[in-house]
Amino acid sequence: xxxxxxxxxxxxxxxxxxxxxxxxxxxxxxxxxxxxxxxxxxxxxxxxxxxxxxxxxxxxxxxxxxxxxxxxxxxxxxxxxxxxxxxxxxxxxxxxxxxxxxxxxxxxxxxxxxxxxxxxxxxxxxxxxxxxxxxxxxxxxxxxxxxxxxxxxxxxxxxxxxxxxxxxxxxxxxxxxxxxxxxxxxxxxxxxxxxxxxxxxxxxxxxxxxxxxxxxxxxxxxxxxxxxxxxxxxxxxxxxxxxxxxxxxxxxxxxxxxxxxxxxxxxxxxxxxxxxxxxxxxxxxx
Length: 286
What we know:
Shape: globular
CATH architecture: Alpha-Beta Complex
Structural class: alpha/beta
Oligomer: single chain
Strand order of the largest sheet: 1-2-3-4-6-9
Helix content: 40-55%
CATH class: Alpha Beta
Radius of gyration: 20 Å
CATH topology: 2-enoyl-CoA Hydratase, Chain A, domain 1
């Protein structure tokens, strides 16, 4: 079946046999990076499927072997701080929406993903990946932080200790660790990839719809307060972290990032600048 949304970065199809909405990342020209256009399209299709309770599951995958490399740093460097804040807030909103969807959300991460693509996977209910897959939360290597779920949502899926290890180490997480942590439900090989995922979608299709939805709502209720609290502090921390503008660095060398001891002075200067911009044109501080 052809995609029934005219999107630039996504293909959206309905698999009637399992009542699955299949969302495929197709933006190969931009290497499947997350972009403002992709976030707009994701928000649109998730808003649409929210009221389609006749759809039992949502499958998210990619035409690439690796689900997504996440951040397009060339795009980020061309955006001002306000635009970057809005970008991360939009992704956080989408990730939170995944927790609230009445459908069971399944994601196929292929051979892995990085930074914000890894954050996106947090909101999905059931995660699969290739046996050779690696995943990372490497935001700080790029002068950014995981402020779209990596700081607050991740510890509702894996243990707080595991979340701390992954975020602070920024190292690639092997599929063995992903399985042991519970982040990944099951791995597959290239030969049985389709069969493994189709079996899960069929299993979801055979569940009683009301009980399936109620079960997901019940699981959400147990973590809802934590998610709402996380939304607030993640936005604040993201805003503070952007002040240094380390995301403009083109290398991965620590010497190119702002020294930690300079942060306090930068924050003070930024506050003065923001207060100054709020004054009338004919009034300036002494």
